[in-house]
Amino acid sequence: MAPSAPAARGNELYAGYQSELADFRLAFSRGGAYTAIVLVLLGVGLDYGQYPDKQLPFAVARIVVSLLIAGVIVALYSNAGRRFAPWLTMSWLLLPQIMIAWMISQTEGVESPYYVGLNLAIFASGIALPFGLWQNLVFGVLSYLLYAAACLLHSGGVEPMGTFIVNSLFLLFAAAASGVYTFFNERARFMLFRLKAEVADKNTELEVINRKLVDIKGQMLQQEKMAAIGTLAAGLLHEVNNPVNFCLMAIEVAMEEPVTKNEPGLQECLVDAKQGMQRIQHIVSDLKTFAYRKPGAEVEGTPFLFEKALDSSVRLTAHELRGVKVTRELPDDTLVMGDEAAIIGVLINLFSNAALAMRKAGTQQPAIHTTVKWADGRLHVNVRDNGPGIAPEHLARVFEPFFTTREVGQGLGLGLSISYAVIERHGGVLFAESELGQWAAFSFDLPRAE
Ligand code: ADP
Questions:
Q1: Does the predicted TM-score (pTM) go above 0.70?
Q2: Ligand 1 pocket mutation, candidates 356, 404, 420, criterion most atoms within 8 A of CB
């Protein structure tokens, strides 16, 4: 049976902890071994104070043990060191204990104050070394057995028995206390590690939320801008449409007057005025898309095949797309719900923008690739060209009404803002991506027809 998500996360955490612990143990083992060499050698001072007559053999023993510990340190730095760290640690810890036990057997046996050294090592292993509970208990019991063996081997035998019992109990108490300490130490270390992992998890979550917030903020800003333009456009429609219509009518009337007919100069002026007024009329009609749209409103329209809309838009822009390689990738079924004419308008706008940008930049082997895919019940469309791309500072502005990089009189800068509003009416988002000098891509999504 597959483990549940929290159980799997728990196992993952435990594995991570074990790996971190292995590094920690290795580092501490090396540090501890260096310390042990120093303490073993400094013990010469103890020998001088307690057993001056044994100074020489004890000093030799200390040097031999230090060299052996140095050998273990070398092993700890080897490749196998990490894997065998607990055993290597146990061996360098036992070396001084064997040496102390030997010294006890060579001096007063049960009454030798050196038994304190055995005790010290047991405590130190529990407090300072990241040992496991069982390792610690084994080390404590082995240390005690070494003490008992030293007393037994002493020429004077196990005497006095009372002191032996007291010292034995002290050693066993030390082993037990050190074991308990190790147990809680290990748990605290695990909790600390888990906390660290949880903080890292939360940080990742926060980063994701932050990125989403930045996206939402961008979309909201765009929607706010569109709403403001909508209000402006509604006002404009009202205020401009009527005077424009009067003017057009007046121009028509004036053009029919005999004076005008006999005056070619005047006639030309009136034709220019008429064209200007018609242009205003077109702009106003484009602005209607903003004026009467409701953000997030239900999609009106009928089911239509997106594939057909794509065909129509390619046909309608055939003139501009001359010399451009147009490719596509479509699923079998592309039945969507919406306003087919408006979507054709969006596609025409995307194709002609791409073709224009590529022509202006002199792109070699210009190409436009349209990828269409279903995801989460919506049809996702991506139109990508290999043209000059869009500069990062322009990318955020391309959907702004009247933003254009075309020369004066060539582009109104309304195409993408109108397209944005159209896609928004279909409950989708139109967004642009680009790598300057490499490519530009526009994506949007449409609802599936029920
Ligand atoms: P217009 O085409 O009238 O300028 P649009 O709103 O359609 O208005 O486009 C706005 C601007 O976005 C363009 O002037 C151009 O700078 C940029 N743009 C749009 N599509 C592309 C594209 N495929 N490659 C490079 N720039 C583009």
A1: no
A2: 404
